[in-house]
Amino acid sequence: MPADSKLKLTPSERRASVALAGLFACRMLGLFLLLPVFAVAARGLPGGDDPVRVGLALGMYGLTQAFMQIPFGLASDRWGRRPVVVAGLLLFVIGSVVCAQADDVFWITVGRAIQGAGAISAAVTAWLADATRDEVRTRAMAMVGGSIGLSFAVSLVAAPLLVGAWGLPGLFWTIACLGLASLAVARWVVPVVPRGDARSMQGARMGEVLRHPDLLRLNFGVFVLHFVQVSLFVVAPALLAHTGGLGAQALWKVYLPIILVSFVLMVPVVFLAETRRAHRGALLASVAGLALVCGLLPLAVDGFYALVVGLTGFFVAFNVLEALQPSLVSRVAPQAYKGLALGFYNTAQAAGLFAGGAVGGTLAAHAGAPGVFLAAAGLAVVWLAVGWGMRPLK
Fold this sequence. Notes:
The chain is mainly α. The protein has helices at residues 3-6, 11-32, 38-41, 51-79, 81-100, 105-117, 121-131, 134-189, 206-211, 213-244, 252-275, 279-296, 304-332, 338-387.
């Protein structure tokens, strides 16, 4: 095959990449819709004025994800990607319905736990890795990472509008519908992809995944990234509402320009990383930017426009890192245990989601928003030190 053709997605690779990115986008939109508004909208519910309980409700999804990602990743290696993904999405829909019918924060926390039990991220990412060649896998993974960033962007604009129109129950019914849409894509749209000879699993050892230094660095990185994401959204919506004089239904007016500007600034970074194979440099620069932004945010807690600038910087770094890291995992993981490796990666991601909600809520209650921001900055600095040893792609 000519070199230039090898760098292009084939029709089957393109179909699988687009379908799986769409599946990921629908499901992640269902998750992200809660983040921008819950800390404000939950005040009308019993327990909704307690930052600890609000943070626990936001993070509980991550706790059950952390327990189930590895079993789901192993199951997808053994029994196939599609049945595992469909089963996980059914749990996600059931949990969304429980949240929609909840009348206090406790039952929302229970519903979030059920949502998280459908831990399909590893299986979906491994499905995409099965469907693509090494030469184009980073591009395909970037499509999925970009779809996650886009989902986050849409959620920041759509969530305040949905809550303003239908309240929290309407938001959760919307999330359930998004889960059903993802299920339909997984069942009928994503093409069947051979997973290779199952006997090859015998040649790889689980220890290769557990001891691989670059995989460990990437696992720690995704933990920190999602810890920071959720912890910031324990306090950021209320700060924006207070300093800007806004209700939950009007926060989209702030989020929309933030997201548009951050996407414009993010695209050149991803483009340069792809064309120059500068993934390590882009990753380290983005982590350094994340640490700097979080370290400066305590100075912005009383200023609306300063908060907007700080959050824009956060989203630039977040979107770049969300696109780069899964593709790097798929490139360095042992072939026979790709699903397992991505299971560990997504377990770390889920643990970050839970810890960000639980610890962020506790810090907010005892040290206020500045304490949350400084803790996030400290973790980002540790991530930068850990990631410094990452080897460049060959």
